[in-house]
Write a structure and sequence with these properties.
This protein is α+β, with helices and mostly antiparallel strands. The chain has four helices and five strands. A hairpin with a 2-residue loop joins strand 2 and strand 3.
Amino acid sequence: MDVIKVQNQLKDIFIKLGFVNQIINDNEYLVFHDTYCKISYIQSVGSFVIESADNYRDAQKGVLEDSDWFSIENIIENPEGIKEVIMNYYM
């Protein structure tokens, strides 16, 4: 399984919902209004985690909350479900 390809699929879901890419301290965030989301891959569990901050200052300091975990299989098989989660919790 190509982790980068799946990560790009997850990012595309955010972008299609209106999030924009922003680099803060060499980290890529997906931003919608005052919500800053960072996608990280955790190899030991084979899942992506969305970390989030409610404002720029917290994102800049790296003060993020682990919010949602998505397995590679879940991203591939259920993109609409992931879209719903993003819309409900990050927008």
